[in-house]
C-alpha cells in the first residue's frame, strides 16, 4: 500500500469513528466474536456482499450507504450486548439474527411492522431502538456524551436523554422511556 492509499484508509477509518463510534473493522470484529459468526455470515445477515464488508472493514470504503444495513448493525450490536449479559441464549441469538437478516430496515421511526404489541402499535423497545439508531446515525457516542456534558448545567433533562439514548444500554433507555410516559 502506498502513502496515498494509507492516508485514504486512515481518513476513512476516522470518518467511520465519527459516524459509527469506532472504525467498522473493529465494530464488525466484535460482532463476529460476540455472536460467533464468520465474515460471510455477518455479511449475509447485514445484507452486504462479502467484498463490500471487507472493504468497509479494511477502510477502503468509509460509509455504509444503505440505511437498512446501518439499522441491522445497530440491532446486531444490541443482540450482542444481550448475549453478553446472558439475557439471550446462543440459540435465541441465531433465531434473532435470521429475523434481523429478513428485516427490511427502512427509514428510522417508520418501520414498525416487525415488533408490535397486540394493537399494532410499536413496542417500547422498538421505539427506543429507533431513537438510539437515529442518534447514533448522526453522532458518535463520545460526541453525544460531550454534547450532554455541555448541556447538563442548563438543560439537565435533555443531557440525560442524550446520555441514555445516545450512549447507554437499550435496557436503561427502555426504563427511561417508561418512566417518562403519562
Automatic annotation (TrEMBL):
Domain of life of the source: Bacteria
Biased composition (Polar residues): 104-120
Organism whose genome encodes this protein: Streptomyces griseofuscus
Signal peptide: none
One GO molecular-function entry: DNA binding
InterPro entries: Cro/C1-type_HTH, Lambda_DNA-bd_dom_sf
Protein name: Transcriptional regulator
Segments passing through the bilayer: none
Segments for region (Disordered): 96-121
Amino acid at each position: 500500500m502506498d502513502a496515498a492509499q494509507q492516508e485514504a484508509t486512515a481518513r476513512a477509518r476516522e470518518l467511520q469513528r465519527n459516524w459509527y463510534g469506532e472504525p467498522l473493522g473493529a465494530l464488525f470484529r466484535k460482532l463476529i466474536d460476540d455472536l460467533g459468526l464468520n465474515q460471510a455470515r455477518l455479511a449475509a445477515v447485514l445484507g452486504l456482499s462479502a467484498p463490500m464488508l471487507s472493504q468497509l472493514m479494511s477502510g477502503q470504503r468509509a460509509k455504509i450507504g444503505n440505511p437498512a444495513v446501518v439499522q441491522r448493525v445497530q440491532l446486531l450490536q444490541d443482540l450482542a450486548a444481550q448475549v453478553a449479559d446472558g439475557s439471550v441464549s446462543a440459540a435465541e441469538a441465531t433465531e434473532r439474527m435470521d429475523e434481523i437478516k429478513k428485516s427490511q430496515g427502512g427509514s428510522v421511526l417508520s418501520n414498525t411492522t416487525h415488533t408490535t404489541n397486540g394493537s399494532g402499535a410499536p413496542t417500547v423497545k422498538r421505539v427506543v431502538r429507533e431513537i438510539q439508531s437515529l442518534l447514533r446515525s448522526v453522532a458518535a457516542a463520545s460526541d453525544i456524551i460531550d454534547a450532554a456534558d455541555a448541556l447538563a448545567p442548563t438543560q439537565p433533562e435533555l443531557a440525560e436523554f442524550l446520555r441514555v439514548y445516545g450512549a447507554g444500554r437499550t435496557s436503561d433507555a427502555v426504563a427511561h422511556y417508561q418512566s417518562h410516559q403519562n
